[in-house]
Each structure stands twice: as structure tokens, then as C-alpha cells.
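Ligand-bound model needed. GLP.
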Amino acid sequence: RDTKEQVGSYIADYIVKRINDFVPREGHPNFVLGLPTGSSPLPVYKRLVEAHKAGKVSFKDVVSFNMDEYVGIARDHPESYHTFMFKNFFSLIDINPKNTNILDGEAEDLYAECHNYEAKIKAVGGIDLFLGGIGADGHIAFNEPGSSLQSRTRIKTLAYETIIDNARFFNNDLASVPRMALTVGVATVMDAKEVVLIVTGQNKALALSQMIEGSVNHMVTASALQTHKWALVVCDEDATSEL
Ligand code: GLP
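Prediction:
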């Protein structure tokens, strides 16, 4: 697509179709959607909200699982992924808040939180469509370079590049960017029936070329998607400049 808005519209229309075509079955009664945060998905959420307002889609039977959440900031912090999701998406659609799952970075037992998250995904029959973005270092969710491609939901220390990248959301103050996060693993994403990746902007061009044209390797964790049976990468013109 030419622009990030067009990427957003294309993906949103695609998701609307998937939700509307979904047929409930035993052990899998709801459409299960994996969701990202960051600036890349904003045009997708905007268009999904518009589609909902136009009566083209309902999220009332959709169950969602977010990819990740920071550790070390409160759930109601303006930059928490909880805040992001409710502000930009959940509060604007008819999803049941009880059907939205976001890792709790404030949980007393972070290991149990991660373990339970995987169990919850299993209990609803797995993720139908995992929507994702990509970090400038090629990460998916917070699976930083060096993460095992077999990884599951766990605690992860953020790479320095990611901390610098995300400082823009914290008044450019490096010291206030969380150092750790809870994140689904690469294998958690790979287990989804379908994965759709949003790649927009010049700053993602190198990551996109490494992910698609490089080898499958744990220094560019999104490259694991090369081996996924049903992965779709939607990018804008700027992101393709290194291909
Ligand atoms: C964070 C998130 C990723 C996201 C990435 C890119 O690291 N954990 O899931 O893909 O940011 O964010 P943006 O879309 O703002 O470039």
C-alpha cells in the first residue's frame, strides 16, 4: 500500500471479514484476536472503530489477548498498554471488557501471570488471528534479539534500542522508560492460526528486509514468520525501501 492509513484500512477490512465469517465450534466458541500496541496499529484501530460505528462489525463475541505489557508502571499509567488499549480501541467498540486479556505487569507473581496467560489462550481454543507490529530491531511483541524462537509468555528485559525507541512515549526521558515487560513468546505468536503484521515507515525498512529476505534467526525474531503457514505482511511504500 502507499500509506500507513491505507495499510490500516486494508488490515481492518481483512479483520472485519474474518470476524464476520467466523463459525463457532465446540471448544472454540469465540473469534480470538491477538492485538498489539505501538503507533503502527493506530490506523487499524481507527478503521475498525469506524467499521463498528457503521454497523459492519460487532466485537461482542470477540475475545482478545494483547501481546505485551510493561513491568514497573501502573496499569492506569498513561503509557501502560492497558491504558493504550482502552483509550484507542476497547472503549470505542462493543467488546465485553471481560473478554479482553492483557498481561498484568503489576502481578505479585509474574511467572504465574505468564503461565496462566498461556493457559487462558489454550482454554478458548487458541488465537485465530494475531495482529502484530515490528520493532526497529526486528522484534515481534517484546521478543528482543536473542529470544528463543520457541519462547512462550515470559518476562523480558528490553533491548537498549527499544528503550531508546520508546522514550518518545515517556517525554523522551530514558530513565522513565520501563526496563522490563511481560510478553507472549515467539512460539505463542506462531501458534496462532493466522498472523498479520503491520510494517509502516522508513524506520522499519531495515527490519522488514531482514525479516523477509534474511535468514530465520533469533536476532530478528519476526523472521520466524517465514515458516508460518499463514502469515501476511502488510507494508507501506516507506517500509519497502530496503527490499
Ligand atoms: C513495542 C511493542 C511492539 C511494537 C513495537 C513497534 O516494542 N512491544 O509490539 O511492534 O513497539 O512500535 P511502533 O508501532 O510504535 O513502531
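The longest helix spans residues 4-21.
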